[in-house]
Amino acid sequence: RMMGTWPGWGWLLLPACQALVAPQEVSGHAGQALTLNCWYAPGYQGYNKYWCRGASRDSCSKVVETAGREVPQQRGRVSITDNHVFCLVLLTLQELSEEDAGSYWCGVERVGRDIMTPVTIRVLPGERWHFV
Asked: Do 110 and 41 form a contact (C-beta atoms < 8 A)?
């Protein structure tokens, strides 16, 4: 009989008790799509989630936001999806380019100070030369 968590699924349960959990850094190849995950605490399902870009939380500018709904929102090459079941916000960047590299913040809008966590995006050279 197994005790403790189910193997492989423990990470799904872990972030739920914290405010916001996202990888500190993600990288993708130029020209490809990049997806970022950001978990939030239960109870914040109906709140507006967003991704903003900038070095500091106070001066970053919103790239895309959910308006508190589960319907995916798109702005140019960027889209955001809020999964209320898993308390998970997904950011997808299509056709990654060098200009996309930098500091981003996953945020939950609330009265007072928003909950935010930083994520750095690194862009690696495209894969197009690998089949030579």
From this structure: no
Q: Domain-by-domain residue ranges, the chain?
A: 20-124
Please give the Cα distance from 87 to 127 (Å, whole number).
33
Left if phi > 0, otherwise alpha if psi is -120 to 50, otherwise beta: which for 13? alpha
pLDDT tens profile 90-101: 999 999 999 999
pTM: 0.80
Q: Which two tokens stand for residue 63?
A: 């790239």
For 5-37, how does the pLDDT look when each residue is reduced to its tens digit (9 = 90+)? 444 444 444 444 457 999 999 999 999 999 999
Structure tokens of 127?
Answer: 């894969």
**SS3 state at 13:** helix
Structurally, at CATH architecture level, domain 20-124 sits in Sandwich (2.60)
Quickly tell me which residue has 């990470």 as its tokens: 11
